[in-house]
Amino acid sequence: MDVKGIQLEKFRENVWEIPKSNGMLVPGRIYISQKMLEHNLFDDEALKQVMNVAHLPGIEKYSLAMPDIHWGYGFPIGGVAATDIDDGVISPGGVGYDINCGVRLATTALTFDDVKDKLQNLITKLFQNVPTGVGASGAIKKLSRSDLKNVLNKGSVWAMEHDLGNQNDIIFTEENGTMRGADFNLVSERALERGADQLGTLGSGNHFLEIDVVDEIYDTDAANVFGLSLNQIVIQIHTGSRGLGYQVCDDFLKVLQTASKKYGFDLPDKQLACAPIKSQEGQDYLAAMQAAANFAWNNRQVIMHLAKKSFLDTFNIYESDLKFQLVYDVCHNIAKIEKHKIGDEEKELCVHRKGATRAFAPGNNQIPTKYKSVGQPVLIPGDMGRYSFVAAGTEKAMEETFGSSCHGAGRNLSRHKAMKIAKGRNISDELKEKGIIIQAKGYKTIAEEMPQAYKDVANVVDVMHNEGITKKVAKLRPVGVIKG
Amino acid sequence: MSAEYKFINHTADLAFDVSADSLEELFLEAAKAWRISVVGDISGKALSNVMLNISADSLEELLVNFLNELNFLLTTKKWLAIIFNNIVIDKTNFLFSANCTGFHVDNSIEIKEEIKSATYHQMNIVNIDNKFSTRVVFDV
């Protein structure tokens, strides 16, 4: 198939390859349906980025893209690439500006019937307690330098030590909420300043806190293990490392641009700036990126704490009645050192997931013991008017995608176009008619983030399900949303 | 002497094409487009000065650093740059300096966009027949 001059060869029903050409070290491989490929909005720029990523020194097997692929900076969103840690590189372009942007899902003991009469009160309370919007700050008191250091070096353990989380939250967070190589000293003063008062804040754009009802269960065994049941009220939190992470990325793009020249890398895109993983520049970026990742885990942890408080206050119940349990916290913008099989050999690789979610298989020693029988929960939010999905990782993901899957829907309309379409309509009322209460800082966000602005996440999830990379476990239906 | 910017349609983020008769004007016009994006067409009494001294390894990096500096001053220091005086751009050593006047923003001014960073994506500063131009894409 020819997509605007780029040749794609069909490998399987939903898997397409871009053969090696013009300096590509490996082929590109894209998980996507023919229908999605042929869609007139499909983005040829993103396909070029898949080809560009294939130039990274030390890249193994394929430059991969998940079905929610769209163009990003350096890597496409939905891009996955693994590089050999001995002769490969690490690139901030494979992580993104919002380091450890991710999603967490928590369950409650409440059902929709329990909450429906007080849903508006709950949303109002959440909106009061969780700062949202551009530059949001002040969820908790401004961190002292010593606290900030511990947030960055210790990860979620810091939140637990400050009664903002518990041991269970640590167990059910990817990496247990702490990347151990993090180094506060490698984070610039400017990044610290941008992040100091932003812990526990959602931010703006596509970040959200959502109250959902478990609407459909596809895999009863896995749903039971994850603690999901029909009509149950659950919450999703989607945000990342806020200004601190943006600044770490920006700082190290400069460092690694210089490094790329120093090591003689000929890269097709400045945003793919990189350094050998074992070089000083590579190690410094890795440690600073890990510190920002730890900030993000604390951020989602604090928001979850504020959400729990909002539930307890609104329904005037005890914690033992609410049974607020973290199912899992996944990051979808990250680079991690992991072991994967290349042929018959197990190798240590730096796996870049940019808008892609880890999807480890049953039995993997990196996932919580509780989930070893069914695989890692994979959280895939959709738009605020339709649904989100919970899936589980598989052995095929380990074999084909370095244990990775999709992360969301991807935009269908530009924000400008969404605003135009929303003109003269009241999106909040439209959502209300569908049983969804939304509260946001301003109408602009609601209009820009309207359901129509996003692709149907079900199509994305189905590609990964049909290809056996992740299997669907449950569908979540939104009933309340707060946004920036 | 003329300079202009034009926002272009972008699926996820914010982008504009900018052109000007000089490099200095190109930077100022890009700053204007940034300001329109984040706070709209507002003006305020310029009450305080900040001296900007920015360095880089290329003209594109200089423009990225300049825009990111303005963004940092607004989002973290809550200070909005309005007027730039005594602008000097050293095109050989990639240095920018200007005496910048502006004011502290309070809650009455809505910051409309959270710009993570100016990016290098499709940025390429060219000079054709003494007309400088480039595209600027912000990650929002």
Plain-language structure description:
The complex is a heterodimer of chains A (about 475) and B (about 140). Chain A is an alpha+beta fold. In chain A, strand 17 (about 375-380) and strand 18 (about 390-395) form a beta hairpin. In chain A, about 35% of the residues lie in helices and about 25% in strands. Chain A contains 17 helices and 21 strands. In chain A, strands 9, 10, 11, 13, 17, 18, 20 and 21 form an eight-stranded mixed β-sheet that branches. A seven-stranded mixed β-sheet of chain A has the order 3-4-5-6-7-15-14, with helices on both faces. Chain A has a two-stranded antiparallel sheet with strand order 1-2. In chain A, helix 4 (about 120-130) crosses helix 11 (about 280-315) and helix 8 packs antiparallel against helix 10 (about 240-260). Chain A has one domain (about 1-484): tRNA-splicing ligase RtcB. Chain B has a single domain (about 5-140), classed as Archease, Possible Chaperone, Chain: A, domain 1. Chain B is about 25% helix and about 40% strand. Chain B has helices at about 25-40, 60-75; strands at about 5-10, 15-20, 50-55, 80-90, 95-105, 115-120, 125-130, 130-140. The model of chain B has no long low-confidence stretch (mean pLDDT about 90). The interface of A and B includes residues 70 and 253 of A.
